[in-house]
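Our platform keeps sequence and structure together, in a single record for each protein. This encoding replaces a full spatial description with a residue-level series of whole-number codes. We quote a single record here, exactly as it is kept in our systems:
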Amino acid sequence: MKGAVSNVLEAVGHTPIVKLNHVASHVSASIYVKCEYLNPGGSMKDRVAINIVNDAEEKGLLKPGGTIIEATSGNTGAGLAMVAAVRGYQTVFVMPDKMSQEKVASLRAWGAKVVICPTAVEPDDPRSYYEVTKRLVRETPNAFHANQYYNPANPEAHYVSTGPELWEQTGGEIDVFVGGMGTGGTLSGTGRFLKEKKPAIKLVGVDPIGSLYYEYVKTGRLTKPFSYYVEGIGEDFLPGTMNLKILDEVVRVDDKECFLTTRDLVRKEGLFVGGSCGAAVAGAVKYAEASGRAENIVILLPDGAGKYLSKIFDDGWMRENGFLEEEDPLGTVADLLRTKIKQKLITGHSGDSVHKIVGLLKEYSISQLPIMRGDRLIGLVSEIDLLNHLIGGGKYEEPIDNLVESDYQTVTPQTKIKLLKNVFNDAKAIVVKQRDELAGVITKIDLIEYLAQKNS
């Protein structure tokens, strides 16, 4: 019949671009969103799933009656399940336990088997959803591991699909492309195509606090990730499908910004989108505020709101987790820093001697020191690092550089105090940054003293 497609897979793509009229009305830039949540499977990952399966079939990696196995936060699983339903494959998906029940239920509706794993474990822990996936692939006959984190077919999907589509839809009138930083497929693939067409275009990645991308891009160091609530964005390791060199800027957002912006997109713009969409828009607005330029910014909106009704759109869940506007009795990092206002921020510098750093720690009665290279933070040095260095025969006049470590995590002044407990479970110290500027360092004793004052 005229106008029909042969199956649902041919309906993927050609999603509309819509202008934001309220959420970003205060910036000079014109901000547009590409509504990838309108794909048949509910997300941009439909494109990736089709390309991964096509590639696997062509290479003989996926055979008739085979089982597709993948670690997913939900959207890639949905795309793969849709493809599998059309082409007759079985599916097994492994998910971290922070994902919404709607995501789990939707995958099972497609006939998939879903395995749930703990979120708060290291990527190489046998219980992590990455390692469980590898085990299931080994144990399952005729299995194919989609492997979106390392499969070149992931970014290639966006290079051959999303990028050309964006360029055609905008007529090349795009100055900035913004996307969330997850597997890297969207930014690496779409970004590569757009850069080839228009080298001056800016690519902006958005990363949630708790993920490791932001600090790695800014300092070259891998800090310890910690748990956060927003789903489908950020990582606790560096996927092979992420090309960080192609990015022009990385903007960081916190859970509260992500969720409140998501709710605004639905209620003020009529866009029925999920949390990673709110993250991308919040990051794009921050970028536009900082640049002040009148330019065209296009943001990719990955998925829809239906998968988050029991979380982001449930006032009880939002209030319970401190994301609505009610005042948190414990306050924010900014409140804690104000109690340290009399202590000026002391820093060391690349090339300083161990002797000089020891002197600074002693003079100011502090246990660790941020080390800068120019105006960029490169890491911290703590008392135990210096002690181990000297006990091991290290010299007092040696440069400090080899002792600088990344056992810290960064937050913003707006981060809630209640979230710092999770950070200190994994990191020795917390570095506070405001728009890339070092604003302070928080240790466990700082937090203890602050909480003691609140309780006195």
About this structure: The first strand starts at residue 17 and ends at 19. The mean pLDDT is 91. The domain at 45-145 is CATH 3.40.50.1100 (Rossmann fold).
